[in-house]
């Protein structure tokens, strides 16, 4: 069959107009053939409304034929899909059939037998109505051309109106700016479905909320092509390339599967150099895809804000896992162990702390222990005065002797001598009773609440379906938010404060402490200036004062103070435990007309002069800086210099020449040295050619989860509903499972 040119095309495009308008861009008209070349897409779109296909049309390639037919469908209000492709020899294609998207019929799936409790299947919509519109393009071997072998434009459905064409799938367009905004919203845990609303007034916005979620789904799949664990490794390697002080370590099993993963930001390592005195460790957070416990090391900065010293995802909560984590964390912190650490009451954690942090004071969370009293003692004791008496004994004892005396009295009064759990707590009383640790600095903390409060903060960034890679990225975004809060607090502490007592001590404290610490100091001072102070004697060079409140004179504390050096201590040991002067010492200082806080009573960690943001002018003259800080300072200086490279050619030459001159001087003084990395990440039993496998679902300690509870309508019940649901009890026969309205015994009597 000879290829022909349809009359409709002749009406729209004649040879003269076509040669003048589009030349060789797409349609060559002759007496024997009509050859379609769709290179000039924009020009063809302008004339596509009048273009009609016919059998015998010739195309320069199969791709161009598909492109032109899709443009034709777009202009006429329908969409196209490929129904069939016939292969040729040697992997080539002999023909392809394009059909309307409404071709064929929707085949219903066979309904399986389901229980009554299960909900009905989701209702789905379909456009399949048996439309016969089609285009078959076939390769002609003799003439070596692509030809329209069969064409039909008979539709049995309504065409989409011009106003609704934007809803067709081929017409949907999600610009790059929208995709970037969706990814940004996802990183900071904002609802990505709001992006179409944000960009609603822009031209070319033809996407909806579902397209945003589909884009993130496709991006996750693309990121996880190499595997979730391996993508985390690639991300961490890139982070370490950007900043050599970023530290991470991966523990693998013999099969190359990730079991433990630890990482810490460069800023976290720098924080630890300034605030290493107390660390809170917690593993109760498990919001990720693999249910791996999220172990975090949390500290307190000079603004009383929580800061991170590193975190990890663990496969289990066994002792060896904690030993690996503590050893790795200690390596990241240059072997400097914390002075004190606060954890939950867990045997594995306790043993690991003893093995790794030998010289560290270990305390247990007070809240987790006292919260078990109702279940371990019994509800009968909770309704009596037992809990109030025990709480006063635990929290308000002024000395170990007083605590031990009151404890024995309470145990005998409520006949709890045989309670093994209470006896066990008494044996380890030095690790959780506050009075035994008042002389050790814990920044005023008795619980791990500071660490657990960070969990609610992370809940706004992650969820139960968060992958490892997303978890690490969102963790970084969360830290950025915390850092911004820290900068705001730094500004407020430097330029704003309020006074209450109008005392010289208060004015001096406002210039020394940060705002939040000053508020605590102010509260102590406000009470202290009204305390009753009586000098009762001498102890060597120390004068002894008895300090008490006018309203409660029976609560007395002895203050020992040297009136010459103003050095001393108080029986309450608030300064040793919290780092802030207590009201008793402040009452004595106020009585002695001391106008400034003695320097030995000011902890540097609470002051506004703590510089931990790599301040070059302060840090560069220190002789005992660790390698990590030296590198961070150096990179900070280089980054500052790089911002001047594009100012002028003269400035650029000055920077380059100065660096080259410095380099030559260092080489002449120290000699050449081989280039090496500052730190190598530890990826145990894993080489560069073996991809890291994803971890398995973690099995943590505690009672396993119950089977999923389903309501009568098939809906999964929440934990609150399951706990609150009780079986009915008949008031007639006292049998569970029914009530008096459905009682068989009562119906038989009737």
From TrEMBL:
It is found in: Nucleus. Its main location: nucleus. Putative transcription activator involved in regulating light control of development. Belongs to the FHY3/FAR1 family. Keywords: Metal-binding, Nucleus, Zinc, Zinc-finger. This is Protein FAR1-RELATED SEQUENCE. SMART domains: ZnF_PMZ (SM00575). One of its GO terms (cellular component) is nucleus. PROSITE patterns: ZF_SWIM. It comes from Rhynchospora pubera. PANTHER family: PROTEIN FAR1-RELATED SEQUENCE, PROTEIN FAR1-RELATED SEQUENCE 10-RELATED.
């Amino acid at each position: 069959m000879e290829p022909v040119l349809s009359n409709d095309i002749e009406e729209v495009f004649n040879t003269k107009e076509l040669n003048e308008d589009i030349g060789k861009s797409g349609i060559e008209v002759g007496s024997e053939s009509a050859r379609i070349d769709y290179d000039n897409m924009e020009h063809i779109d302008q004339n596509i409304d009048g273009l009609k296909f016919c059998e015998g049309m010739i195309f320069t390639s199969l791709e161009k034929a598909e492109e032109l037919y899709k443009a034709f469908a777009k202009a006429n209000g329908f969409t196209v899909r490929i129904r069939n492709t016939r292969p040729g020899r040697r992997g080539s294609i002999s023909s392809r059939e394009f059909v309307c998207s409404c071709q064929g019929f929707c085949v219903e799936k066979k309904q399986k037998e389901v229980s009554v409790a299960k909900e009905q299947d989701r209702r789905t919509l379909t456009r399949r109505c048996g439309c016969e519109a089609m285009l078959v393009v076939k390769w002609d071997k003799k003439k070596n051309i692509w030809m329209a072998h069969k064409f039909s434009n008979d539709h049995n459905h309504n065409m989409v109106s011009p106003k609704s064409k934007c809803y067709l799938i081929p017409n949907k367009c999600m610009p790059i700016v929208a995709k970037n905004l969706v990814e940004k919203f996802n990183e900071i845990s904002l609802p990505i479905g709001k992006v179409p609303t944000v960009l609603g007034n822009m031209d070319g916005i033809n996407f909806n909320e579902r397209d945003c979620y589909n884009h993130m789904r496709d991006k996750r799949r693309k990121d996880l092509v190499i595997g979730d664990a391996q993508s985390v490794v690639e991300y961490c390697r890139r982070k370490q390339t950007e900043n050599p002080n970023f530290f991470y370590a991966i523990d693998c099993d013999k099969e190359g599967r990730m079991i433990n993963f630890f990482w810490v930001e460069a800023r976290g390592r720098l924080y630890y150099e300034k605030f290493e005195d107390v660390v809170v460790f917690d593993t109760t957070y498990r919001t990720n895809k693999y249910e791996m416990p999220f172990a975090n090391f949390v500290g307190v900065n000079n603004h009383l804000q929580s800061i991170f010293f590193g975190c990890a995802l663990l496969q289990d909560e066994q002792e060896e896992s904690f030993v690996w984590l503590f050893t790795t964390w200690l390596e990241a912190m240059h072997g400097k162990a914390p002075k004190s650490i606060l954890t939950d009451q867990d045997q594995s954690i306790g043993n690991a702390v003893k093995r790794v942090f030998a010289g560290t004071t270990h305390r247990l969370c007070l809240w987790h222990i006292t919260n078990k009293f109702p279940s371990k003692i019994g509800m009968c004791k909770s309704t009596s005065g037992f809990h109030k008496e025990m709480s006063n004994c635990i929290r308000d004892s002024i000395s170990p002797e007083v605590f031990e005396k009151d404890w024995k009295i309470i145990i005998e009064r409520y006949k709890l001598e045989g309670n093994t759990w209470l006896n066990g707590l008494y044996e380890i009383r030095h690790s959780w009773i506050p009075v035994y640790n008042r002389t050790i600095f814990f920044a005023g903390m008795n619980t791990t609440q500071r660490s657990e409060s960070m969990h609610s903060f992370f809940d706004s960034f992650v969820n139960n379906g968060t992958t490892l890679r997303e978890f690490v990225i969102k963790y970084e975004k969360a830290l950025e938010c915390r850092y911004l809060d820290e900068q705001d607090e730094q500004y407020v502490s430097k330029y704003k404060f309020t006074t209450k007592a109008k005392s010289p001590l208060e004015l001096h404290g406002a210039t020394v402490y940060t705002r939040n610490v000053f508020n605590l100091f102010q509260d102590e001072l406000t009470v202290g200036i009204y305390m009753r102070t009586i000098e009762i004697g001498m102890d060597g060079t120390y004068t002894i004062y008895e300090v008490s409140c006018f309203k409660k004179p029976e609560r007395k504390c002895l203050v020992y103070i040297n009136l010459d050096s103003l050095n001393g201590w108080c029986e309450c040991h608030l300064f040793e435990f919290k780092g802030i002067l207590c009201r008793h010492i402040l009452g004595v200082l106020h009585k002695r007309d001391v106008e400034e806080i003695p320097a030995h009573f000011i902890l540097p960690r609470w002051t506004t002069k703590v510089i931990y943001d790599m301040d070059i002018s302060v840090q560069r003259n220190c002789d005992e800086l660790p390698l990590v800080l030296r590198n961070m300072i150096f990179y900070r200086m280089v980054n500052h210099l790089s911002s001047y490279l594009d100012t002028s050619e003269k400035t650029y030459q000055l920077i380059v020449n100065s660096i080259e001159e410095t380099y030559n001087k260092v080489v002449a003084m120290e000699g050449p040295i081989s280039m090496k990395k500052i730190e190598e990440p530890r990826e145990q039993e894993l080489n560069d050619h073996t991809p890291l496998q994803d971890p398995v679902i973690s099995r943590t300690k505690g009672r396993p989860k119950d089977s999923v509870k389903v309501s009568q309508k098939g809906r999964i019940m929440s934990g609150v509903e399951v706990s609150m649901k009780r079986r009915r009890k008949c008031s007639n026969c006292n049998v569970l499972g029914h009530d008096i309205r459905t009682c068989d015994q009562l119906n038989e009597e009737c």
